[in-house]
Specification:
Layout lengths: L2 H29 L15 H7 L9 H10 L14 H24 L21 H6 L11 H13 L5 E6 L4 H13 L3 E5 L7 H7 L10 E5 L6 H14 L7 H11 L2 E6 L4 H12 L4 E3 L17 E3 L10 H16 L28 E5 L6 E7 L10 E4 L10 E3 L1 E8 L8 H13 L4 E4 L6 E5 H5 L5 H15 L5 E7 L2 H24 L7 E5 L11 E3 L12 H10 L5 E5 L3 E3 L4 E2 H10 L25 E6 L4 E6 L12 H8 L8 E4 L19 E4 L1 H6 L1 H10 L5 H4 L9 H11 L11
Parallel strand pairs: 1-2, 1-4, 2-3, 4-5, 5-6, 7-10, 8-11, 9-14, 21-23
Antiparallel strand pairs: 7-13, 11-14, 12-13, 15-16, 15-17, 18-19, 20-21, 20-22
Length: about 750
């Protein structure tokens, strides 16, 4: 433990606590202890004080005990003669500094001095405290206050599931503007969230990035907090709130919160430029959270000791970094920080000759630009992934069996079969369809390749441009191999791919694949809500509907249509702390409407108490809530004693007098509204579709696009319901968009809903 650091942290803490005390006393004297104090857009009060001490700061007076606590943590600077090399005092100084910094920011908000006005910024979440005149004179904008809860949730999930490996709090200013840009780009490249604060002699990295035209904001993962060191408190507030939000901790559980951060939140501090007392003190505060500081100047280091598992303060002087350019130096600095903290970085290298990434997923390959296509009208293509024993897979082996692309005229069509064998200790046959469905996303990530559909209706195009760069059939295998390892490494250990273009072999394997699809279909049909003990939650959408949770059962998929019960099961296996958690159904309270004790409990918990009970199979009694991504809206049509189903793709008027987009406002937002519900379209085909209210026979009106695109599935439903002509008895927008006309049509068609018990 460095005496130098201990001394400077203690000095910094003493000074800041004194400043906060004076400021607080003065403001209370002027405004009164009852004056409200709040950070905007967060339910966590002043989060560090709330998390560490359990204090819900709502007024200036509530800040007094916070400062008293901070004061108690102060130590004098170490004595020259009596020096005990103890980390504890430095950590105390750090915590005192954080509490004082948060107090100052809280008081500043009360005084209308926060967020710091700054020309040129606009961040969705920050509430503006600057005057309209200021905004217009200065081109608008201000630095961010605390990150709002909604944004926190959206990033938090990514932090938890690894898409966003961690965050970097940069304090100070880089040597040059070029260095500032290079450092931030290195962090962005790795999806690391970057918070900016502080300055060196009045110059902040925020100024540097702004001068270089770097776009800052939530979307680019670069969040400028403020030009003083104190504003770095928001980074630690963010860390505290992560533990409260995702770790399920309560205010006051300081030990758990710090440990959560130490083990789960991969963050670090980059101290750029001269480090003064306050920065040492703040760095000491970060150490309590397990966040090391990496400085680009010469400072003493804190290396691993008995109590610490890794370095806490690292010095990597910019001028001594062995690299020719600012970019290379930045890369080395960031790399070092990542190593020190042990940040897990997920960058999938896909060995193909065209650019690869999710930015290319939406690309379309037009016929005139196409080298060759597989599937569609003129040929057939299928994908089949199956699990086999470990010793039956040669990992990384990719074979192409049959004629190459060159054998085909430009713009032609070929048969194709992509057959994949996987093995893994945690692999289950149930996960085969889950992994197989990913091929669509995997292949689409390649620039110049278009993929549509799945199973035996896959349709793939390779553009001339991609072919020109050397993309060939084997690369489908390379993509699938790389991505399965990268994304599903938790369940898949080995991957082998065979690409068939030989027509006879394609036909032979297509038959095997179809038998497997058939088997899976039957397995799915037999998988009922009664035959399993656990359903799954999906909380992915809490990023924007913070009180919404999808309850996903074998017979009711997530309302976005993207997550069924098996997907959730696999997702949980891959990421046990992720957004899909098993939930025991518990005791059945009402088998018809689908009330279960376990589900009610989880609904209360995940909705933060806004929902008390939830029915799995009813729209009329305590229906499931919705975020905003439902494929369809189901809504009561009282006149017709039934419901209508409106597809997201249907722009027309409905018998409710509203279009989909207006209805969406009523159905979404995590509210429980009886008579309105957002659903995934395949829920319509489930025997459990509003079975508590009479089931599918209640559907009196349905967007025609659903009738067309799901004709076969809906016909099966009609037969199951014992009314083979049922679909033709259901109206759509081409028939009527008015409730009176609807009733007349239903009477004419003999729709069963008119004869059923009153729906409410
Ligand atoms: Fe999850 Fe889809 Fe529901 Fe969102 S809509 S919570 S992604 S299942
Ligand atoms: Zn959603």
């Amino acid at each position: 433990m460095s005496r130098y650091i201990a001394t400077r942290a203690a000095r910094g803490a003493n000074a800041l606590v004194a400043e906060a005390e004076v400021m607080l006393a003065k403001t209370i004297a002027e405004r009164g202890a009852g004056t409200p104090v709040a950070f905007p857009n967060t339910a966590y009060y002043l989060p560090v004080a709330f998390g560490m001490l359990g204090h819900e700061v709502k007024t200036l007076g509530d800040l007094r005990p916070v400062m008293e606590h901070a004061h108690k943590l102060l130590h004098p600077a170490p004595d020259d003669n009596l020096w005990v090399p103890y980390l504890g005092e430095t950590l105390d100084s750090g915590m005192a500094t954080l509490l004082a910094a948060e107090t100052i920011e809280g008081v500043r908000f009360t005084l209308g001095q926060q967020p710091e006005p700054y020309p040129g910024f606009h961040l969705a979440g920050g509430t503006s405290f600057t005057s309209p005149e200021f905004e217009s004179e200065n081109g608008g904008g201000h630095l961010n206050g605390p990150i709002d809860d909604i944004q926190l949730r959206s990033w938090g999930i990514q932090l938890v599931d690894g898409r966003m490996p961690g965050f970097a709090a940069i304090v100070g200013a880089a040597r040059t503007n070029a260095a500032a840009v290079a450092i931030v780009r290195e962090l962005q490249r790795r999806n690391i969230l970057t918070f900016l604060s502080g300055n060196v002699n009045g110059r902040s990295i925020i100024d540097q990035l702004r001068e270089e035209g770097v776009e800052m904001g939530y979307d680019t993962f670069i969040v400028p907090f403020g030009r003083d060191t104190i504003s770095a408190i928001y980074a630690l507030g963010f860390a505290t709130r992560s533990a409260l939000t995702f770790g399920g901790m309560k205010g006051g559980q300081w030990r758990d919160i710090l440990l959560y951060n130490k083990f789960r939140v991969f963050a670090f501090v980059l101290a750029l430029g001269e480090v003064d007392d306050l920065k040492y003190a703040a760095a000491a505060g970060a150490i309590s959270y397990g966040f090391p500081t990496i400085a680009d100047t010469v400072i003493p280091q804190i290396l691993p000791s008995g109590v610490t598992r890794y370095e806490h303060v690292i010095s990597m002087p910019w001028n001594e970094i062995g690299a020719a350019t600012e970019e290379e130096k930045a890369a080395k600095l960031v790399q070092r920080a990542i190593e020190v903290r042990g940040v897990k970085i997920k960058m999938t290298e896909v060995p193909i000759p065209v650019p690869y990434g999710s930015a290319f997923e939406g690309e379309v390959v037009r016929k005139k630009d196409m080298r060759v296509e597989f599937g569609g009208k003129y040929s057939r293509a299928f994908e089949y992934l199956r699990m086999v024993d470990m010793d039956k897979v040669e990992d990384g082996k990719i074979e192409v069996i049959g004629p190459p692309i060159e054998s085909m005229a430009v713009g032609g069509a070929m048969d194709l079969g992509i057959v994949i064998k996987v093995a893994g200790r945690k692999m289950q046959t149930d996960f085969e369809p889950v992994l197989e469905r990913q091929i669509h996303y995997f292949v689409n990530g390649a620039s110049g390749i278009q993929h549509i559909g799945q199973r035996d209706i896959a349709w793939i195009r390779i553009s001339q441009a991609a072919y020109g760069k050397g993309f060939n059939l084997r690369h489908f295998g390379d993509i699938v191999h790389a991505r399965l390892h990268a994304d599903f490494g938790a369940i898949v250990d080995k991957v082998q791919v065979t690409i068939f273009t030989d027509p006879a072999l394609v036909a032979e394997w297509l038959e095997k694949a179809r038998a497997a699809y058939d088997f899976r279909n039957r397995r799915l049909a037999n998988l009922t809500d009664e035959t399993v003990e656990e359903f799954y939650t999906c909380t992915l959408c809490q990023s924007f509907a913070p009180t919404h949770v999808c309850l996903v059962s074998p017979q009711r998929l997530g309302l976005c249509g993207a997550y069924n019960w098996l997907d959730c099961k696999a997702s949980y296996e891959i990421n046990p702390t992720g957004p899909n958690q098993p939930v025991r159904k518990g005791a059945v309270l009402d088998p018809v409407k689908g009330f279960y004790t376990g589900l009610n409990e989880i609904a209360v918990k995940n909705s933060q108490g806004s929902v008390q009970e939830v029915a799995m199979y009813s729209i009329m009694t305590k229906p499931m809530t919705a975020c905003g991504c439902f494929e369809c809206i189901v809504m009561l049509v009282p006149e017709a004693n039934g419901v209508m189903v409106v597809s997201r793709e249907d722009p027309s008027m409905t018998p409710a007098g509203m279009t989909f987009s207006t209805l969406a406002g009523m159905a979404g937002g995590g509210l429980q509204t009886e008579g309105v519900m957002g659903v995934g379209k395949y829920y319509l085909t489930s025997p459990k579709f509003i079975s508590g209210d009479g089931g599918f026979k209640r559907v009196v009106w349905m967007s025609s696009i659903l009738k067309q695109t799901m004709a076969a599935e809906l016909q099966t439903v009609a037969e199951r319901e014992g009314d083979p002509d049922l679909i033709s008895k259901i109206a759509d927008e081409t028939v009527c968009t008015d409730p009176m006309e609807l009733v007349a049509f239903l009477e004419g068609s003999g729709h069963p809903a008119l004869m059923m018990d009153p729906i409410f």
